[in-house]
Specification:
The model has no long low-confidence stretch (mean pLDDT 93). The chain is mostly helical and 161 residues long. It is globular and about 45 Å long. The chain has one domain. 28% of the residues are buried. The structure holds fe (ii) ion (2 copies).
Length: 161
């Protein structure tokens, strides 16, 4: 499948990575990209298959990476445990809404569910960037933050369509 947006995004991420990015840098960049994709559908108030598929792929890879590489490092520390457990739950809610979108054939219903997904992700991103990452910085070392970034990017390279 052609996905120029993901390829562009990946290229920009790799450029950042060469500058020694932390996992937070990469995740924030992905948050911004997915927000831009949601905006395209919501501004036009029309369901668009190609854009939604990009959102779904991006979110699946992003959430899987966080769940595999970042959250396990934070869930056993008292300072970050509750926020991390909350984050897992928010991922589950998002995955359920994505399954509902796939199970619906009505484009207007898909659009309504995409708006709900967008709001759910917005709230989740706000919590990650506003609270979880701030606390994570006190739990993880600088070297951890860069090593997790490298692992995240190599996982992503293997999963991209
Ligand atoms: Fe995230
Ligand atoms: Fe997340």
């Amino acid at each position: 499948m052609e996905s120029p947006v993901l390829q562009d995004e990946l290229r920009r991420e790799q450029e950042k990575l060469r500058d020694n990015a932390t996992i937070y840098d990469i995740l924030k960049l992905e948050h911004k990209d997915v927000k831009r994709l949601f905006k395209q559908i919501i501004d036009e108030e029309r369901y668009q298959d190609n854009i939604y598929n990009q959102i779904r792929t991006a979110l699946q890879i992003h959430m899987a990476g966080e769940e595999k590489l970042l959250y396990p490092r934070l869930e056993n520390n008292e300072e970050t445990r509750l926020l991390t457990l909350e984050s897992y739950e928010e991922h589950e809610v998002s995955k359920k809404v994505m399954n509902d979108i796939d199970d619906t054939n009505d484009n207007e219903a898909k659009l309504a569910k995409i708006k709900v997904l967008s709001e759910t992700i917005d709230m989740h991103v706000e919590e990650e960037e506003g609270e979880l990452f701030k606390k994570a910085k006190r739990v993880l070392s600088d070297e951890d933050e860069r090593e997790i970034a490298r692992q995240f990017m190599s996982e992503k390279m293997n999963k991209l369509p």
